[in-house]
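Retry 2 of 3 after timeout on previous attempt. Resubmitting structure tokens to design endpoint.
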């Protein structure tokens, strides 16, 4: 292990002892895992509705397309608006999407177009959420901790890609696909609470401010 890797590792552990960033990273781990749970559940439900490969692929296409189209607009918005408010708004939207799709699945009224439509909506919310997160993380730590904070944030995001589908598989097996959507909604509710409680630190001037 290089000296730089050891330094980043020690910085990352130190960051987990700080209030604002620790609250943020715990909330992100929960909500990111919830998002991957929903994506796995969407594919599971879709595979039960159709066996056509093009329709199965359409779900992932609908989820990913908004990020390509809306990236410039979302990035500009994150620079000009309160990042926490953007995150809260996108998370409330994702709670609504998850609950609505969960009820459709639970009632047995879900159709192919429902899955594609909600995948598109989830992709739009995700497109606005990611630039806000990227801009928020450096505001939660000291200047010399930014690299470690970003590295830890990305590690949590990619780690959630393993946790989310694994948990979703258990939920689908135990209680059906709808449970994965409702659990995702719960995960966003928890993350919304952590973002509302997260302060941003003005480390560059040596002071400390709380974003309203």
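Retry 2 succeeded. Sequence:
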């Amino acid at each position: 292990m290089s000296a730089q890797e050891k330094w980043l590792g020690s910085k990352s552990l130190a960051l987990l002892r700080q209030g604002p960033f620790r609250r943020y990273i715990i909330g992100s781990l929960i909500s990111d895992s919830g998002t991957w749970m929903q994506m796995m559940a969407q594919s599971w439900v879709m595979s039960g509705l159709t066996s056509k490969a093009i329709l199965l692929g359409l779900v992932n296409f609908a989820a990913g397309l908004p990020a390509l189209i809306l990236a410039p607009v979302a990035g500009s918005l994150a620079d000009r608006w309160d990042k926490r408010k953007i995150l809260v708004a996108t998370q409330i939207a994702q709670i609504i999407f998850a609950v609505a799709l969960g009820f459709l699945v639970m009632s047995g009224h879900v159709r192919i177009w429902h899955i594609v439509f909600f995948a598109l909506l989830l992709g739009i919310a995700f497109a606005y959420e990611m630039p806000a997160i990227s801009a928020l993380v450096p505001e939660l730590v000291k200047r010399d901790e930014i690299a470690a904070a970003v590295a830890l944030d990305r590690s949590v995001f990619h780690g959630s890609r393993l946790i989310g589908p694994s948990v979703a598989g258990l939920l689908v097996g135990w209680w059906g696909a709808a449970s994965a959507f409702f659990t995702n909604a719960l995960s966003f509710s928890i993350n919304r609470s952590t973002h509302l409680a997260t302060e941003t630190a003005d480390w560059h001037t040596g002071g400390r401010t709380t974003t309203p």
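Attempt log closed. The two ends are 42 Å apart (CA to CA).
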